[in-house]
Automatic annotation (TrEMBL):
<dbReference type="InterPro" id="IPR006379">
    <property type="entry name" value="HAD-SF_hydro_IIB"/>
</dbReference>
<dbReference type="Pfam" id="PF08282">
    <property type="entry name" value="Hydrolase_3"/>
</dbReference>
<dbReference type="GO" id="GO:0005829">
    <property type="term" value="C:cytosol"/>
</dbReference>
<dbReference type="InterPro" id="IPR000150">
    <property type="entry name" value="Cof"/>
</dbReference>
<dbReference type="GO" id="GO:0000287">
    <property type="term" value="F:magnesium ion binding"/>
</dbReference>
<dbReference type="GO" id="GO:0016791">
    <property type="term" value="F:phosphatase activity"/>
</dbReference>
<dbReference type="InterPro" id="IPR036412">
    <property type="entry name" value="HAD-like_sf"/>
</dbReference>
<dbReference type="InterPro" id="IPR023214">
    <property type="entry name" value="HAD_sf"/>
</dbReference>
<protein>
    <recommendedName>
        <fullName>Cof subfamily of IIB subfamily of haloacid dehalogenase superfamily/HAD-superfamily hydrolase, subfamily IIB</fullName>
    </recommendedName>
</protein>
Amino acid sequence: MTYKLVALDVDGTLLNDDHVMTERTMNTVMEASNKGIEIVLCTGRGPQNTIPFMEKMGLTGYVISHNGAATVEVETRDIVHQFGMDEKALNPFMDYCREKGVHFDVNTAFGMYVDNVETLAGPVRHMYENYLMLPSNLPTWEELKEPVVKFTTFGEVADMEAVFEDWSKWTLPFNMLRSGEYFIDLMHEQASKGNALKQLAAKRGLKPEEVLAIGNYYNDITMLTFAGMGIAMDNSPVEVKAAADAVTASNNDDGVHEALVKYCLS
């Protein structure tokens, strides 16, 4: 099969555990692009800390950001599509986080907000530095002019498991998913990487069987199952591997390079 679009997750997939895209992987992605394959980064990150990876590779086109909640055109920064949330329905979740001491941030397509930037320290500040983002102070809902597309909590694995268990007992108006060991995301109930990739493929006139997707975590399952070829990284949980059509090497062993050579460049 000749694949015309490749959707790549970023953290844990395109990047190694040091948050670095190796020269080997970068050159292979660029080679695939030079052969006419459209490259789309499909990530839990926002566009502002995803687009620089596209620009570093000299790529244009689109990024699917915030786990599918916002699709953005690289060159213009235009929002092609976004799933806006009912922000007032987030109030009980914010109250829970404040009561339990769980860190959270609120995301619009291009903005990220926390309760108090001045109090960010330790692992929380280090996390934002790793992801090349520094949030702003959260305004009131009335002052926030752009739609909220994602609400994220961050903490130790055991703490996130406890939060996930608690919220699973609620009647949720949102799509809740684990986007990493240390993260829980709430989004519009229709927002997912798979839905966003499906919309983008239709916009580009592509069938699912012309799409290849590579990812490593639970938030990638919907895009792996939408694509004609879904590839899990070796560092993926067993459930993600089970949802994929194939498994490649880990993110620390240039698994994206290996998969693109095997399925796109051979």
